[in-house]
Amino acid sequence: MERKIIITADGSSTIHLPEWDEQYHSKNGAIQEAIHVFIKNGLSLFKDRKISILEIGFGTGLNSFITFLEAQKLNLSVNYTGIEAYPVTIDEIKKLNYVTELNMSKFAAIFNKMHQENWEVSCKISSNFSLTKRKQFFNEISDVNTFDLIYFDAFGARFQPELWTEAIFKLMYTSLKNGGVLVTYSAKGSVRRAMQTVGFTVERLPGPPGKREMLRATKK
After folding, report:
1. For the domain bounded by 32-89+105-218, which CATH number is listed?
2. How far apart are CA 198 and CA 90, in angstroms?
């Protein structure tokens, strides 16, 4: 499938799929969306501890890079696992402007390292951040009671409804520790009901720019 680099409303880049007219991040602002959904309403719940994060849709590495930056502020030691069936190429990565837009040129080498490290192995990105990239489909996830936090950042249900089903959210529920949290940009009623059916307690929260609501689910 063809992929093109475009600029979103906040000046940050993302990848556009012309065939679907869909993006890896919101056209209303890639960085703004990532910070609002995954940091403000997810990562910020954790401070001064060691946590394990699962990202559903590693994609451009934006969420992992911002998590690395925020982990310094929150005094977190992060074990980060990113799942991606169709990895972004290095040539595409070179065209993304996240380091510049975040004014984090001093960590440019970290962003590059996240993409250059091998798949299927745990890599030490920094003293407090380890990354494992796994090339697999989401329905192949078999972790049990492993993660404190899930960033559910799959393509929208309009394009890949099979990724937003009870079966997938059951895998997410199983992979979380008790008290673990899943956050996603989606606010669809069918998604919320699927989460609730498998056991999650679900909250509707204010969404990022361009979206009225988002969802946060907790495993009690």
Report:
1. 3.40.50.150
2. 38
